[in-house]
Specification:
Blueprint: H1 46-56, H2 60-84, E1 88-94, E2 99-104, H3 110-115, E3 119-122, H4 127-140, E4 150-154, E5 159-164, H5 169-178, E6 186-190, E7 196-197, E8 207-209, E9 212-214, E10 218-220, E11 223-226, E12 236-237, E13 242-248, E14 254-259, E15 268-270, E16 276-278, E17 290-295, E18 299-314, E19 317-325, E20 337-340, E21 343-354, E22 358-365, H6 366-373, E23 396-402, E24 407-410, E25 416-418, E26 422-429, E27 435-443, E28 448-454, E29 460-467, E30 470-480, E31 483-490
Parallel strand pairs: 2-3, 5-6
Antiparallel strand pairs: 1-2, 4-5, 4-18, 7-21, 8-9, 10-11, 11-14, 12-13, 13-14, 15-16, 17-18, 17-20, 18-19, 19-22, 20-21, 21-22, 23-31, 24-30, 25-30, 26-29, 26-31, 27-28, 27-30
């Protein structure tokens, strides 16, 4: 069942292609008015909501509301950051209250923030300043990597957080001061973190590099991105077969694998609930946003973003620019996908803890990897597959082609007249890997009204509706994915 029920947008506009209805109707039905489409928040595959309920203790409706809110908040954040410019000090979500906080260094920016529906917070330091100080620590703290496992910018406290092990806190403070970071812009915190890369575990849905195992991150044209520590450039992979075409670790933790012919990259992520989650893009979510991770060891796990641009010291070396989260992960999950709703965020790098007691996990931002290698993310549209051949056995068959977000009315933008009561049976066979929806609408004398719909996360849908005589039409909506479809219909 679909996570979010979508309503139908119907506009009562006459068009030049309107057909003359059967005699006796008080008003003419307009077959070419706006076709079906969603007016609520984007739907999300069931595996995501299930994992949020399990890991975050949320009800299903609360999980739906949170994802809808943070999708809108991501757009608001981008708009405000461009408008505020040099005064920008970061943004974060309060997931319980569904509030977007925006930090600025000039109180005069407050009205613009409030007008956008966010809550302004006046901060002492800009995000650019904090990022600069954090970057300076990459060199200052590398010599003590064994006792200072990570550091990052915490926008919620407008400071750089440095994590030091017991007994090393004062040493870390001295090094931070020597690096020129202002005292009011840094917090040195004692930690038990012991980050490690996730690679050396057996079992699960994965790809393999020699005797090791990692997880696919996101499909790109010609292959997929993953963690750099999973393999060096030139290393061969199996299941799918391919070769590391580029790899960067330490410093960064990204790589991309060029797959061999016969392997087809698909814009989707395994939800470990028997299905996939469509990837629609790679818009960065905000601090505080709910995210879920897919990996071949522990499946789907959810949590929140705590910070961006974190630096982590692994035994192999330091990695900067990572996303810090409280999502759990374990060895073998390395390289796996981090998503916010249907937006790609990053690939699993490493962290502390496990999925029994919880932990901290860091992710390599996906957009950095795409930019480094000039790659194109494969979204839910993918490549257009050949026309489907399903939905046989119906009285009439209609075909068409749609791209993501577009809709169509069958038959041929018009409608059919059903002369007697009975059951209307519809079948939609959409492109493989897509998410197409099916609607049955009836003319009520003044407008088209939906009387039945099938809106699962699948490419294929069916409707069986028992109704009275009248004018009916069939709506097809491409929620995610593009390509050709077949629609079968049998009426009384």
């Amino acid at each position: 069942m679909r996570r979010m029920r979508h309503t139908i947008a119907i506009a009562g506009l006459a068009t030049a292609l309107a057909l003359v209805p059967a005699a006796g109707w008080a008003a003419s039905p307009d077959p070419d008015v706006d076709a079906p489409g969603p007016t609520s928040a984007p739907k999300v595959a069931n595996g995501v909501l299930d994992a949020m309920q399990r890991d975050l203790g949320m009800s299903r409706s609360a999980a739906q509301d949170r994802l809808a809110f943070q999708a809108a908040a991501a757009e608001t954040e981008q708009t405000l950051q461009a408008r505020i410019g040099a005064d920008w000090a970061g943004a974060w979500l309060d997931p319980k209250a569904n509030v977007l906080h925006v930090a600025v260094t000039d109180a005069a920016d407050g009205p613009a923030v409030r007008a956008a529906g966010a809550r302004p917070v006046v901060a002492a330091h800009t995000l650019a300043e904090l990022d600069g100080w954090r970057a300076g620590l990459d060199a200052a703290l590398t010599p003590v990597a064994a006792t200072v496992p990570s550091w990052y910018v915490d926008v919620t406290t407008n400071s750089v957080v440095v994590n030091a092990t017991a007994g090393a806190v004062e040493q870390a403070r001295s090094l931070v001061a020597a690096a020129g970071v202002p005292a009011d812009a840094v917090r040195v915190v004692e930690t038990t973190e012991a980050p490690r890369t996730f690679i050396d575990v057996i079992g699960g849905n994965a790809y393999y590099i020699g005797g090791g195992r990692c997880s696919v991150g996101f499909a790109v044209t010609g292959g997929f991105v993953t963690a750099g520590h999973c393999g060096r450039t030139g290393a061969a992979t199996t299941s799918p077969s391919g070769t590391f075409a580029g790899s960067s670790f330490p410093g960064n933790d990204y790589a991309w694998v060029r797959v061999a012919s016969g392997n087809t990259p698909v814009g989707a992520v395994n939800n470990y609930s028997g299905g996939t989650v469509a990837v629609a893009g790679s818009t960065q979510a905000a601090v505080g946003a709910t995210v879920c991770r897919s990996g071949s060891t522990t499946g789907w796990r959810c949590g929140t973003i705590q910070a961006f641009n974190a630096t982590v010291n692994y035994a192999e070396g330091s990695v900067s620019g990572l996303i810090r989260t409280n999502v759990c992960a374990e060895p073998g999950d390395s390289g796996g996908s981090l998503v916010a709703g249907n937006q790609a965020q990053g690939m699993t790098s490493g962290g502390s803890g496990n999925c029994s007691s919880g932990g901290t996990t860091y992710f390599q931002p996906v957009n950095e990897a795409l930019s480094a290698y000039g790659l194109t993310l494969v979204t839910s549209g993918g490549t257009t597959p050949p026309p489907p051949t399903g939905c046989s056995g119906y009285a009439r068959t209609y075909t068409g082609s749609l791209s993501t977000g577009r809709s169509a009315i069958q038959p041929s933008g018009s409608y059919v007249t059903v002369s007697s009561s009975g059951t209307i049976r519809l079948c939609l066979d959409g492109p493989t890997g897509s998410d197409f929806d099916l609607y049955l609408q009836k003319w009520n004398g003044s407008s088209w009204a939906s009387v039945a719909s099938a809106t699962s996360s699948s490419a294929d849908e069916t409707i069986s509706y028992t109704g009275t005589a009248g004018q009916y039409r069939y709506g097809v909506y491409a929620y995610a994915g593009s390509g050709s479809y077949t629609l079968g219909a049998t009426t009384p």
